């Protein structure tokens, strides 16, 4: 009986030590991940803000007044957002609120991000906001480009099949251009 009690307390001590070690490493991993995300997202923001000759040194601090965030969204969307020029907390919150409302109007889902969180420099939520912006502006632009390219190819194949079934298209820009010219020539003989 005493042997089982000693064994049990020894096992609990080892388990407790392992859990503590795990939690310390988990926190260290989260901190490293957050630092990498902050650095990466700062570079992404600066890449876009460079068009306005502005830069962000500290993502969590430099987005707090909402002005850089407004500039970023205006660059990405080619739309104008309202902005407050004052320097009080109220003006900062209004600027960030303008950004969040703009994103919501575009049906971009924001989870638990309030203007006060960004104004207060909440790192996790600032990273979440920038990631959401990247997903909806950068990644969606790539997807839209791929969809447009696919539609162009589908139209070319359809025109080819309906105007000249013997004409095969090889998937290259030159062949599509030559084929387009031939198809246009057939459809409207006097153009070429």
TrEMBL record:
Q: Name one GO molecular function term.
A: actin binding
Calponin-homology (CH) domain spans which residues?
Answer: 35-138
Q: Which domain of life is it from?
A: Eukaryota
Q: Which UniProt keywords apply?
A: Actin-binding, Repeat
- Do you know which PROSITE patterns this protein is assigned to? ACTININ_1, ACTININ_2, CH
Q: Which InterPro entries match?
A: Actinin_actin-bd_CS, CH_dom, CH_dom_sf
Q: Which SMART domains match?
A: CH
> What is an example of a Pfam family matching this protein?
CH
Name it.
Calponin-homology (CH) domain-containing protein
Q: Give the source species.
A: Meloidogyne incognita
Lineage of the species this protein comes from: Eukaryota, Metazoa, Ecdysozoa, Nematoda, Chromadorea
């Amino acid at each position: 009986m005493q042997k089982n009690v000693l064994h049990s307390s020894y096992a609990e001590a080892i388990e407790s030590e392992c859990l503590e070690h795990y939690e310390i490493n988990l926190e260290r991993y989260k901190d490293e991940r957050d630092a990498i995300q902050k650095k990466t997202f700062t570079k992404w923001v600066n890449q876009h803000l460079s068009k306005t000759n502005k830069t962000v040194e500290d993502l969590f601090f430099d987005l707090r007044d909402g002005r850089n965030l407004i500039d970023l969204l205006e660059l990405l969307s080619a739309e104008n957002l309202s902005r407050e020029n004052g320097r009080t907390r109220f003006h900062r919150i209004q600027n960030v609120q303008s950004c969040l409302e703009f994103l919501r109007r575009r049906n971009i889902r924001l989870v638990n991000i309030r203007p006060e969180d960004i104004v207060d420099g909440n790192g996790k939520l600032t990273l979440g906001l920038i990631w959401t912006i990247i997903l909806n502006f950068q990644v969606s632009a790539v997807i839209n480009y791929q969809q447009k390219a696919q539609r162009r190819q589908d139209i070319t194949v359809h025109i080819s099949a309906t105007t000249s079934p013997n004409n095969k298209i090889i998937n290259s820009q030159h062949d599509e251009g030559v084929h387009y010219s031939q198809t246009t020539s057939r459809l409207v003989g006097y153009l070429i």
